[in-house]
Design a protein that fits this description.
This protein has eight helices and nine strands. By secondary structure, the protein is an alpha/beta fold. It starts with 17 loop residues before the first helix and ends with a strand.
Length: 246
Amino acid sequence: MSRYPLAEPKWALPSVSALSGSMQAKIQNRIQANFQKLGDDVTFAEAASARTLELLSAAEVEALAGEVVAAFMEAEGRKLLSGSEIAVDEDPELYILRSDWAAAQEGRIDLSGLPEGAIGQGDNVFRHADVEGEALVLREVDEITRLIEEGVPEGVIAVIDDSGGTMTAPILPEFAAVLCRAGTVRSHLAIIAREFEVPVLMGCVFRREPRTGERLRVRYSSAAQNPEAYHGGESNPPALIEEVQA
């Protein structure tokens, strides 16, 4: 019997994270094992079109995900990081807000090489003039709803957890700039930010937590991060996030 065709993809990049890589490997192995059980007279095309649930059922996916997450949490010593408080409310044993986790790590992340005045850094999505503005830390959907109804004040630099961009997409063009704690320059938020020409840093880390209302200067004039940097390619220096003294 032939192997599951996607178990050895012809073109594939390494997984960005160990978590996604582990899940992908487990799913591929389970599909291959289930495919073999169907017998030599069944082609993969037939199995995929008419007997899909025999290749991989919802219950199997749920069980595999549980194994992967449990192994990840044991190895990393932490919960999964979420950009949405809804996930935390629904399953607090599994998720922690990315911003809450980052705040707990304050002083533990080695950013000793940052120049004086810099409080953090991140990967630049595209080159843009430097932006100075007032920080607005956004953690909850209710805050986004309020901004949609009332409008975003001029010159705001949003500090967000979620790299998906779904939560901020309706008002993304209204921000002067965005600092996102998660994701890469390949993330959904980075893609739509390019379309709207909103300067964004991805995967931001901070020496101290940014505060709503403080003035920040973000060096978006830094070179954009090379998308291949996440897969062993040449990496450009991160862009700096600086506090502006009154």
